Here is the input.
Amino acid sequence: MDFLATLLHTIAFVPTLVNNIEELFSHRTGAEKKDAALSFLRAALSTSSAVANRQIVDHEMFNLGLGKVIDGAVECLKASAWAKTT
Here is the structure.
C-alpha cells in the first residue's frame, strides 16, 4: 500500500486510540499517555521499515507531526460530548 494511504488510514484511528489510551492509562500523566499513543502509532505505521525504505527522511519531524495529530485529536475530543462529565 502506498505510504500516504497507509498514513491517512492510520490517522483515522487516532480518536479511538486516544480514547483507549485514556481509559487504560487514566492514572498516568498526559505526557505518558501521549508517549503510549505515539508508540502505538509508530507500530501501526511500521515506521522503521518506512525509514529504511526512505519514505520517511526526517524521523524526528515525522514524530513531531504524529504528536501534533494526537494533540489535535485530544483537543477535538475534549471539545466534544466525549468529555461530558456525568
The CA atoms of residues 20 and 37 lie 9 Å apart. The radius of gyration is 14 Å. The longest helix spans residues 59-78.
